[in-house]
Design brief:
mainly beta, 22-stranded antiparallel barrel, 625 residues, single chain, five-stranded mixed sheet
């Protein structure tokens, strides 16, 4: 029924598009772009920001986890394909990664994380990844880095419709479908997207008689955003998204067939924004409502379940004023949030947060710019320390640049950290970090390279450990570690070149080395590989395109004692793929593509006792018109 509904919607949208084209002038003239997170690049001069464009997304349609794992320097922990997935920057924890939806932090109040298999690849117009602290702009949890999911709205001088349909089939009865519609006129613009994914996900475990039983998943998502331009000075925008996921939770070795549980989750987000611009002044007022709910079934055939939910009210006012004479911009942000969270085992609790931040961006000369940031939070549950940041970027020679930044960031304990029955710790206090980074790089039309050294010193870091409370031996409980230090090197490089006038080549490399130490025990922090690296090579010739992906993940300890008996071994993964443009016109593009994952049939795990798939396939059709 869901598949039928999906294609009915697609047909209706295509019908509207075809009829509307009668009044469409095909010459694309001036356009005005409305982005929900315009300030990201303005406030990131001294930080590394990676943009994942359409071609990268098309090569990684399987999952959001796969997209990030093979194209960024982030470490992804995934409990089997389709299972719980979380991201970690520079050796920090998953709750130190802030995920932003159109500028709003969407991490759960219950566990402080965002599940990346609850996000759909291709529905968002713009995906950016920023390494480094960001608590001033993005609040609690933005210690390691931030991931930005944005909808881009475009006003056009002449009416224009665009459509995109992507359908994919793959191994283990995996089916994915996506439809996107965009419309823009001088006064009104709208984006609409819908996706559906389903899989038996019953891949065989290599060197074993078992399969990934109880691994089925099914989900669908809807995105809608629109904007109305009252005048050149006043624009009203509205964004909404809905996701429903239903997945079985696969078992672990040595007895994966014993798994019989199920997990359902719902995420619904809404944001209303009114922006006013006049001369050097800009004022943006936003109001948001976010809802999350999950159900956990210990028996997938039972109607008995555990649950958790949260309701979040959000409002902020941001004002920018640019002093053109000095080439400087001052930004003020005032923010208020009220979050209600509960589970079947935790009574409903309300946390209120108020914050005020100020940011100065100043471009002294063409070759030098800097920013100063400060933020103070007031939290109904905790005393949150003052956050601050300073950074600069210097370009002394053509193409070469130096950048440096330092910041103080924080994370407050989540509801699960504090109140989870039998495991929570009411004595937790907010963790805070002081970090610094120095980078050097080069940028030209063909080559980009950025190499940075980073150091993150955290006090009172919150981790879960099976021996955190001597009165509860063997029980996983959260504790504050007195001090941890993460230091290392991060590299990002990209090289583009045209060979023989018709072969476009694109090579990208990401690498992170991190040494994350618990200063009290001088042991490595669990679940932090020292080495993570990936490489992508893409070649385009006329209508043909091929690509190769490589991933290396270093050895990972899973215990505080760094026992060699409980490690995840290092692994290498290679993927290949390609596409062919059957139809290539100004307003139409039809391509077919394929991808072979794990072509060397590597037997590997990311989480102990949870094997990942061997060689598997994916075929897709992508039609833009």
């Amino acid at each position: 029924m869901k598949q039928v509904l999906f294609w009915v919607i697609c047909f209706c949208c295509i019908f509207v598009k075809v009829n509307a084209q009668k009044d469409t002038i095909h010459n694309r003239l001036n356009e005005v772009v409305v982005q929900a997170n315009k300030r990201l690049l303005m406030n990131s001069k001294s930080l590394k920001v990676v943009n994942l464009n359409d071609s990268i997304i098309t090569n990684n349609l399987e999952s959001f986890t796969s997209l990030l794992r093979f194209n960024t320097a982030i470490y992804l922990r995934e409990h089997g394909v389709g299972g719980t997935s979380s991201a970690s920057f520079r050796g920090t924890s998953a709750s130190n990664t802030a995920v932003m939806w159109n500028g709003i932090n969407i991490n759960s109040i219950n566990n402080g994380q965002t599940g990346f298999n609850s996000l759909t690849v291709g529905l968002y117009d713009e995906l950016n990844v920023r390494s480094g602290g960001g608590s001033i702009e993005y609040g609690s949890g933005a210690i390691g880095g931030t991931i930005h999911l944005n909808d881009v709205l475009k006003f056009r001088e002449n009416k224009e419709f665009t459509n995109q349909i992507v359908s994919a089939v793959g191994s283990f009865s995996t089916i994915s479908s996506l439809y996107k519609l965009k419309y823009g006129s001088e006064k009104y613009t709208v984006n609409f997207g819908i996706s559906y994914n389903i899989s038996d996900n019953d891949y065989p475990f290599l060197n074993s008689d078992f399969r990934n039983s109880n691994g089925d998943y099914e989900n669908y998502a809807i995105n809608f955003s629109n904007a109305y331009r009252f005048s050149d000075e006043l624009v009203l925008q509205f964004f909404t998204t809905y996701f429903f996921g239903d997945r079985l939770l696969s078992g672990e070795l040595p007895n994966p067939t014993s798994a019989d549980d199920k997990y359902q989750d719902i995420n619904q987000r809404n944001l209303l924004s009114l922006e006013f611009k006049r001369n050097n002044f800009r004022l943006n007022t936003r109001v948001g409502y976010l809802f999350q709910k999950y159900k956990y079934f210990d028996n997938k055939d039972s109607e008995v379940f555990n649950f958790g939910s949260s309701n979040r009210l959000y409002t902020d006012i941001t004002a920018d004023y640019t002093f053109q004479k000095f080439n400087a911009t001052v930004t003020s942000n005032t923010r208020f949030e009220s979050v209600y969270g509960r589970t079947d085992q935790i009574t409903e609790r309300n946390r209120k947060e108020f914050s005020q931040s100020l940011i100065l961006n100043h471009k002294v000369k063409r070759s030098f710019s800097y920013d100063i940031k400060v933020r103070k939070d007031y939290n109904s549950d905790f005393d949150v320390p003052l956050s601050y940041a300073f950074g600069f970027k210097l370009t002394p020679y053509k193409g070469f640049f130096f950048r440096a930044n330092t910041s103080r960031n924080y994370r407050v304990p989540t509801y699960n950290d504090l109140f989870w029955p039998g495991q929570g710790n009411l004595n937790l206090i907010p963790e805070n970090s002081l970090q610094g980074e120095f980078g050097i790089g080069f940028k030209s039309n063909q080559l980009f390279i950025d190499v940075a050294y980073f150091n993150i010193n955290s006090k009172d870091k919150i981790i879960w450990t099976p021996n955190g409370d001597p009165n509860r031996p063997g029980i996983w409980t959260p504790i504050n570690l007195e001090e941890t230090t993460n230091q290392g090197v991060e590299l990002a490089a990209n090289y583009k070149r045209l060979f023989f006038n018709n072969i476009q080549t694109d090579l990208s490399v990401n690498y992170t080395y991190v040494d994350a130490i618990n200063e009290a025990t001088k042991t490595a922090i669990p679940f932090v590989p020292k080495h993570v690296a990936n490489t992508n090579i893409r070649m385009n010739y006329n209508r043909f395109s091929i690509f190769y992906q490589f991933l290396f993940n270093g050895k990972t300890y899973t215990t505080q004692s760094n026992s060699e008996d409980f490690v995840v071994d290092e692994f290498f993964i290679s993927n290949i793929g390609g596409s062919y443009n059957i139809l290539k016109r100004e307003k139409q593009n039809l391509s077919i593509g394929f991808k072979m994952n794990n072509i060397l049939n590597e037997d590997y795990t990311i989480i102990r006792a949870r094997p990942m798939p061997g060689i598997n396939y994916n075929f897709n059709v992508n039609y833009k018109f």
